C-alpha cells in the first residue's frame, strides 16, 4: 500500500530530512548571524550527521529502535540548544510508534508524540519567534489533512506548506526566546533560523516520501 510507511521507507524520509539540513547549512548560519551567533547551520548539520550515522549503524529494521537511537545520538551531539530540541523530537516520535509499519493515523500519531516531547523542553509559544512557530501550524495542517481523509503524501505536503509559511511569518516577529530576544526590536525583519531549520524537516519528509 502506497500510504504504508515501513522501515525502509522511513529511512528514505529521514535521509531526505538530513539532506535538507546539510544542504542549507550556510543559509541557516547566515540567518543566525543577523540575530544570534551565526552557528545554527553548523548545529543542524551536526544533527544531520547524527541522523545519517544512526541510519548507517542500525541493522535492526525496526522503526521504534531507529528513532530511539537517532534521538539519543542527537542528544549526545555538541550542538548547543539544538541537541535537546531535536533529540527530544526523535525520542518522542519513537514513543509514539506502536506498529512495525505506519499508516496515516499512525504516522500522524508519531509526529504528534515527537512535537509533544519537544515542547516539554521549551516554554516558547506561537509568536515567540522560534521553531514553535513552525511546529504548531505544521502539525495543525497535518492533523486537518489526515482528518479529511487525505493520503499521506497530501498530509505531508500540507504540513510542509504550513511549516514554510510559519517560518516566513517569524520575519515580522520580535523574539521573546533565545539569543534573538537580547536584541529586542532589531530582530524584527529577520527570519528565525530555528523556525527555518524546522521547516526544512517537514519539507524533507514530504520530498523523501514523494521520492520513495
Task: Write up what this structure looks like.
This protein has 212 residues and is mainly alpha-helical. It has a single domain (7-211), classed as Serine Threonine Protein Phosphatase 5, Tetratricopeptide repeat. It has helices at residues 7-23, 25-35, 40-57, 63-75, 82-95, 104-119, 132-147, 152-169, 193-211.
CATH architecture: Alpha Horseshoe
Summarize the amount of helix as a percent range: 55-70%
Order of helices and strands: HHHHHHHHH
**SS elements, strand count:** 0
> How many helices in DSSP terms?
9
Average of per-residue pLDDT values: 92
Q: Which class do the helix and strand fractions yield?
A: mainly alpha
State the CATH topology: Serine Threonine Protein Phosphatase 5, Tetratricopeptide repeat
Shape: globular
Radius of gyration: 16 Å
Sheet with most strands = none
Poorly predicted tracts of residues = none
**CATH class category name:** Mainly Alpha
Strand content: under 5%
Q: Give the tally of structural domains.
A: 1
Distance between the termini: 13 Å
- Write out the CATH superfamily name: DhaL domain
What descriptive keywords fit this protein?
mainly alpha; 212 residues; 0% strand; Serine Threonine Protein Phosphatase 5, Tetratricopeptide repeat
Summarize it.
The protein is mainly α.
Set down the secondary structure blueprint.
Elements: H1 7-23, H2 25-35, H3 40-57, H4 63-75, H5 82-95, H6 104-119, H7 132-147, H8 152-169, H9 193-211
Helix pairs in contact: 1-3, 1-9, 2-3, 2-9, 3-4, 3-5, 4-5, 5-6, 6-7, 7-8, 7-9, 8-9
Amino acid at each position: 500500500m502506497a500510504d504504508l510507511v515501513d522501515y525502509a521507507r522511513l529511512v528514505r524520509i529521514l535521509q531526505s530530512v538530513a539532506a535538507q539540513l546539510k544542504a542549507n547549512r550556510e543559509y541557516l548560519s547566515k540567518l543566525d548571524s543577523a540575530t544570534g551567533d551565526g552557528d545554527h547551520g553548523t548545529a543542524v548539520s551536526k544533527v544531520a550527521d547524527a541522523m545519517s550515522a544512526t541510519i548507517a549503524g542500525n541493522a535492526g529494521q525496526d522503526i521504534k529502535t531507529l528513532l530511539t537511537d537517532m534521538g539519543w545520538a542527537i542528544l549526545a551531539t555538541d550542538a548547543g540548544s539544538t541537541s535537546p530540541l531535536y533529540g527530544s523530537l526523535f525520542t518522542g516520535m519513537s514513543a509514539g510508534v506502536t506498529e512495525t509499519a505506519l499508516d496515516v493515523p499512525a504516522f500522524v500519531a508519531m509526529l504528534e508524540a515527537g512535537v509533544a516531547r519537544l515542547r516539554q523542553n521549551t516554554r516558547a509559544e506561537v509568536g515567540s519567534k522560534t521553531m514553535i512557530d513552525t511546529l504548531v501550524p505544521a502539525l495543525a495542517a497535518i492533523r486537518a489533512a489526515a482528518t479529511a481523509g487525505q493520503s499521506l503524501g497530501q498530509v505531508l505536503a500540507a504540513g510542509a506548506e504550513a511549516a514554510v509559511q510559519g517560518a516566513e511569518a517569524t520575519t515580522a516577529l520580535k523574539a521573546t526566546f533565545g539569543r534573538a530576544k537580547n536584541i529586542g526590536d532589531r530582530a524584527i525583519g529577520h527570519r528565525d533560523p530555528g523556525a527555518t531549520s524546522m521547516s526544512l524537516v517537514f519539507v524533507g519528509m514530504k520530498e523523501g516520501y514523494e521520492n520513495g
